[in-house]
Design brief:
Layout: H1 9-16, H2 26-38, E1 43-48, E2 52-53, E3 56-57, E4 61-70, E5 76-79, E6 94-99, H3 100-103, E7 107-108, E8 130-131, H4 134-137, E9 145-155, E10 158-166, E11 170-178, H5 186-202, E12 208-214, H6 219-235, E13 236-242, E14 251-254, H7 262-271, E15 276-279, H8 288-291, E16 300-304, H9 326-345, E17 349-351, H10 371-386, H11 393-400, H12 404-416, E18 420-422
Parallel strand pairs: 7-8, 11-12, 11-13, 13-16, 14-15
Antiparallel strand pairs: 1-10, 2-3, 4-5, 4-9, 6-9, 10-12, 14-16, 17-18
Helix pairs in contact: 1-5, 5-9, 7-9, 11-12
């Protein structure tokens, strides 16, 4: 596999890292506009504040200009302009002089990691707050008063996302997505969009259509599913969510609910030749929760390196650019490409009848025959029993222990007899 790329993902990372992203806002638009300059085929779209999708409603847009806590000497103890993690993401505005006893109720710290700023949010409850290093918090005194400013506002606006379509010969679709709702977090936020953007440059048109999706986590995915549910149910071949793919951890696969969709099978087939860790749906935590929920059960998995929540820097200021390397990002991009290539080169078939077809009608049953005829008949029956969207020919070959060339020949014969049709 040729892994030479004419671009540097770490350059993109350094440009994008300082931007304050959230569920909504100018930070997201700025991020998407930057990625659109890398690949003009990204289409920036949006949902409007107040739109309802199933049990959820798109929130008001959030805009923040500045935030700080300042002591009586005019020194800023925390400063949003130096690190956007210092502010509770989606915080309502405040401009007041407060004593320490009042202020500390709205400060979040990590006692076990006293040098780090935690990443905190309050998307769906109106509150203000700051995050800060615990060691800095401990230096604050009860008799002090502080000037507190959060210059933010909420208003009817929009939630932005981006989609890029690489049209194939078929409208059957491979969906690859990541999220754009975290501020300055490198592995947990940026690595997914970086790898997905790299894929937009290296994936080529083939049999299936490929959709690349950058969307806010959870509510963005829910809104997208609501808008596209019939298409996804009828046409999704495999869905892959990308998260935390820039660090040095070994690859991880978060399985679908029942762990037996085509997405599970094809990803495991590629990953088995690499060092990786498999997680169940019990360990879910990203957009696989929505695409793979029990009343959809789409063929959808998540691929990480170190899984979100499982590395010590997760959701803290330590999740910075030092965690990412060009090598790790490229390995992740080419792993996903390898999975996509594996899907594109294999065939999936569906049965044309409900229940078993009447094989005698198709001259596939020899009522008088020896052991070899009997074995062939059993193989035909097993192929017809197992064929479906969760098995390509290679997977059926492994499952039924039939030589690939032989099973391919049988399935082409069944296609000619109009018993099977290709899922395309």
């Amino acid at each position: 596999m040729n892994k030479k790329l004419n671009f540097k993902m770490m350059k993109w990372a350094k440009d994008l890292f300082p931007i304050c992203r959230s569920l909504t806002g100018e930070g997201n638009r700025k991020t998407l506009r930057y990625l659109k300059k890398i690949n003009k085929n990204f289409k920036i779209k949006n949902f409007k504040s107040g739109e309802r999708f199933y049990d959820w409603k798109i929130p008001l847009e959030w805009k923040i200009k500045d935030a700080y806590i300042q002591d009586k000497f005019g020194s800023k103890i925390v400063d949003f302009k130096k690190n956007n993690l210092y502010v509770l993401n989606y915080s309502i505005p405040i401009k007041r002089k407060l004593n320490f006893s009042r202020l500390k109720k709205n400060i979040f710290t990590l006692k076990k990691s006293p040098s780090l700023i935690p990443y905190t949010t309050s998307y769906y409850k109106n509150r203000w707050g700051f995050s800060m290093e615990y060691k800095k918090f401990k230096r604050l005194r009860n008799n002090q008063k502080f000037d507190v400013l959060i210059d933010s506002k909420h208003f009817k606006g929009k939630m932005d996302y981006a989609e890029l379509v690489i049209k194939g010969k078929s409208k059957k679709t491979i969906l690859i997505c990541s999220y754009i709702c975290h501020p300055s977090l490198a592995n947990n936020e940026l690595s997914g969009p970086l790898v997905l953007t790299a894929l937009s440059k290296i994936l080529k048109p083939s049999k299936y259509t490929i959709k690349l999706l950058l969307i806010p986590e959870t509510i963005g995915a829910i809104a997208y599913i609501n808008k596209n549910i019939n298409f996804l149910k009828q046409n999704l071949v495999t869905g892959i969510n990308i998260s935390c793919v820039g660090d040095k951890g070994k690859f991880s696969l978060i399985s679908s609910l029942n762990e037996n969709t085509y997405a599970d099978k094809v990803c495991l087939r590629i990953l088995k030749n690499k060092k990786f860790k498999k997680y169940s749906f019990l360990d879910r935590g990203s957009n696989e929760r929505q695409f793979g929920c029990q009343n959809l059960n789409l063929p959808f998995v998540t691929i990480c390196r170190s899984k979100f929540g499982d590395y010590k820097q997760y959701h803290t200021s330590a999740d910075n650019l030092k965690l990412l390397t060009e090598k790790n990002l490229r390995e992740s991009a080419f792993l996903i490409k390898e999975i996509v290539d594996e899907i594109q080169k294999n065939k999936i078939f569906l049965k044309q009848t409900t229940c078993e077809p009447f094989l005698t009608k198709y001259n596939l049953v020899n009522l008088i025959g020896g052991p070899q005829k009997k074995k062939y008949f059993e193989e035909v029956q097993n192929i017809i029993a197992y064929v479906g969207k969760d098995f390509d020919i290679k997977e059926l070959s492994l499952k039924l222990k039939i030589n690939f060339k032989k099973i391919f020949k049988i399935m082409m014969h069944l296609k000619k007899k109009n018993i099977l049709k290709e899922f395309i």
